[in-house]
Specification:
mainly beta; Neuraminidase; five-stranded mixed beta sheet; 2 helices; 41% strand
Length: 309
């Protein structure tokens, strides 16, 4: 009887572990490989060797890039170097990256920038909102852009990362919601659910409540999203094999993948792989942003790619 009970327990345990493995295999795309896809003119940006986790491009063609992210469980090739915000002018023939200085009593040594979003007010003043992880905490830093520097204005520290005012949940049931962006007409919100391999399309109401319109399954770990304001196309930086990112092996590095989604609100959106690499050139892509047929592809910890489309 005891032997039968032990075998039963062992069987249940194996079944549980098998189910967990299948779930993990699906979520992380453990065995997926990518076929190389590369535009004709691409090169790595000098000076950006420590990641560029997020990128936001202004209508003028100025691009802001957050670099140097130190995140639990992720590789970091320069652990003692503080994070920075870089600027690129995509109107230049061969745009270069310029590190922006930060003014106004900001602790640059603990700067650990993650996601970024730019905002332009009615006076054309540019503000940058940066998710920061100083000392393994989470804050939102607000900067004003001025010339070749950022002026620190405010640090928002709250368990819900909100400034004073209403805080409410507007969507739930997402698989590790990460990249969030908005359509050019401000009517729709696009949310990347990383481990579900989906983009959720949600209608935005005047009170900022969201209702889900559709879910687009992409078969890859979708990270940050950006929208081309000229076309409305959604661009996604993706991880074809998430396990390679978590268990980093320089001999078998994580790959990169960029998707372009056209007509995302239609019944049959067009999904195109614009860039794909097995890690030999670019490792751990997180974001792709475009301006005037020029594309920047950022990564968690690796390099930054520039391509003419």
């Amino acid at each position: 009887m005891a032997k039968l009970l032990a075998l039963t327990v062992l069987g249940l345990l194996l079944a549980f572990l098998g189910e967990r493995f299948l779930t993990l295999r699906h979520q992380m795309n453990i065995f997926r490989q990518v076929d190389p896809v590369e535009p004709q003119s691409c090169y790595l940006i000098q000076g950006l060797e420590n990641g560029s986790e997020d990128i936001d491009i202004l209508p003028s063609g100025l691009a802001f890039l957050s670099t140097g992210l130190k995140y639990p469980g992720m590789p970091n090739l320069a652990p003692d170097k503080p994070g920075e915000i870089f600027l690129m002018d995509l109107n230049e023939d061969k745009p270069k990256a310029l590190a922006l200085s930060i003014r106004n009593r900001f602790d640059v040594q603990s700067f650990n920038p993650h996601g970024i979003s730019a905002f332009i007010d009615k006076d054309n003043t540019v503000y940058l909102y940066v998710v920061n992880h100083p000392h393994k905490k989470s804050t939102v830093e607000i900067f004003q852009f001025e010339g070749d520097s950022l002026i620190h204005l405010k640090t928002i520290t709250h368990e819900l990362l909100s400034s004073p005012g209403e805080v409410k949940e507007v969507a739930s049931g997402l698989g590790f919601a990460n990249g969030i962006t908005i359509s050019p007409d401000k009517k729709y919100i696009y949310v990347a659910a990383v481990t579900s391999h989906n983009i959720h399309v949600m209608r935005r109401h005047d009170n900022w409540n969201l209702t889900q319109e559709k879910v687009l399954h992409l078969g890859t770990l979708v990270d940050n999203l950006s929208v081309d304001p000229a076309t409305g196309d959604v661009w996604a930086g993706c991880h074809p094999n998430g396990m390679k990112l978590l268990l980093y092996d320089p001999a078998d590095p994580p790959g990169s993948e960029v998707l372009r989604i056209q007509n995302i609100l239609s019944q049959k959106p067009t999904v195109t792989v614009v860039y794909a690499n097995n890690g030999s050139i670019l490792q751990g892509s997180t974001v792709a942003a475009v301006y005037n047929q020029k594309m920047l592809v950022g990564t968690v910890f690796h390099r930054t790619l520039y391509c003419d489309l």
